[in-house]
Amino acid sequence: MVTDEPTDSLDKTADPWAAYDETVAATGFWTMARQLPTTFGSVLVECWRVSRRDTVALVLCTLIAEIGTAVGLLATTEILDHLLETGPTPERIRSAAPALLLVAAMVVGRGVLREAAGWTRSRLTPQLRRSLQTRLLRLTTAVELVAFDDDGFQNTLHRIRERAPHAVAALLDGVLRLLSGAIGVIVIAGVLGVLHPVLVPLLLLALLPTWWAAVRSARMSYEMYAAISGAERRMDTLSNLMADRVPAAEIRAYTMRSFLLGEFHRLSTHVQDRAIHLERRHAENGAIGGSLAGLGIGVVYLALGLLLFTAAMPLAVAGTAVIAIRTAMSSLRVLVDSMNWSYENALFYRDYLEFCRGAAARQERSGGTDAPADADRIVARDIAFTYPNADRPALNGLSIDIEPGEIIAIVGENGSGKTTLAKILSGLYQPDAGSVTYGGVPLREIDLTSLRDRIAVVAQNFTHWPFSARQNVTIGRHNHAEADTGFAAAISASGTDDVFAGLPRGADTLLDPTYQGGVELSGGQWQRIAVARGLYRDAPLLICDEPTAALDARTEHSIFETIRKHAAQRTVVLITHRLATVRYADRIFVLKQGRVVERGSHDELMARDGIYREFYTLQAQAYHNDSRQTGDS
Ligand code: ADP
Question: Ligand 1 atom 16: the closest Cα is on which residue?
Answer without folding.
Answer: 415
